[in-house]
Amino acid sequence: MKAVLCFLLIFAGPVFGDPNGDFAACCKNKNISDTCQIFCNYVSKSSDVLQAFTNGKCNIEIDGPSFYQCLENEKDNTKCCKAAGVGADASLDFCLDICDGSKPLKSDMKYFKCKPFEQVIFNCGKDSH
Question: Is the pTM above the cut of 0.70?
């Protein structure tokens, strides 16, 4: 019984990670500001996060690139986003950039136009754990 329990703790733990804990740890490791770290979870509403970047709780230039890397679990979730319709409108295809957490996102106000996809982008990040 003890051997089975040890196996589960050692091997199942990384497989069934804690998305919110991973997101928060990533933000902390990337030195995201304290006022922005409170949004480093998948429980926060995506609209609240967007508002935090709009009203200055999160600094778009300082916190933005790292925040979105952490949101996407530092993985390229472009396929997930495409499958959910992000980038289908050619005039908003740059929204797919947000889905690629494997590299820092360059700060640009154009990403505020991606609001229609904010929940899909959040979900793809969460589902990548």
Answer: yes
CA dihedral for 88, 126, 72, 45, sign (positive or negative) = positive
Decide if 118 is inside a domain.
yes
Q: Residues 71-103: pLDDT tens digits? A: 999 999 999 999 999 999 999 999 999 999 999
Asked whether residue 114 is assigned to any structural domain, the reply reads yes
Structural domain count of the chain? 1
Strand, helix or coil for residue 84: coil
Within-domain flag for 12:
no
Q: Report the distance separating Cα 51 and Cα 57, nearest Å.
A: 8
Phi and psi torsions of 39, nearest 5°: -95, 0
